[in-house]
Design goal:
- This protein is of the alpha+beta class.
- The chain has helices spanning 3-14, 37-42, 67-75, 77-80, 89-93, 118-125, 128-142; strands at 50-57, 60-64, 101-108, 111-115.
- The termini are far apart.
Length: 144
């Protein structure tokens, strides 16, 4: 079994059998593993947030690198939050959920998408429009 096959098998094994929470969060309730959702848009890079700047939204704690980013998110969370609740965009396009690596990201048409890892993101990138369309079709049935 090659590494990529192993990773997909692991992701599938870890994927939800029942509907998942609307936001992918860590055990301590952090969305995007504590990364700043706004920074993807304003700095074009994954940036760790701080416990000093947080906002509660959709059942998760969101952290930000600055008060300005926190305030921007609070005004319009849907604009900055990752699509598919922050679950892997590839997995959702395949009708299951998987965790993400906040450094495997892409903004498409003003929306943030995350993937399981860089290898999965390469596969997702081969048909972004098709994967997004499939994800949008599947996502409503995958979450609570």
């Amino acid at each position: 079994m090659n590494r990529l096959t192993f990773l997909f098998s692991l992701a599938l094994a870890l994927s939800a059998k029942d509907p998942v929470d609307p936001v992918n969060k860590s055990r301590n309730g952090l969305a995007i593993k504590g990364y700043d959702a706004v920074a993807y848009f304003t700095q074009s890079t994954p940036t760790k947030g701080s416990a000093e700047f947080t906002h509660q939204w959709n059942g998760a704690t969101w952290q930000f690198a600055s008060a300005a980013n926190r305030d921007s998110f609070a005004k319009d969370p849907a604009r900055f939050a990752p699509q598919f609740g922050g679950y892997c965009a590839w997995a959702v396009s395949k009708n299951y959920t998987a965790d993400t690596d906040p450094t495997a990201w892409k903004i498409v048409d003003g929306k943030l998408y995350l993937n399981y890892n860089a290898e999965v993101q390469k596969m997702w990138s081969q048909d972004v429009a098709g994967r997004i369309a499939a994800g949008e079709k599947n996502w409503p049935g995958l979450h609570k």
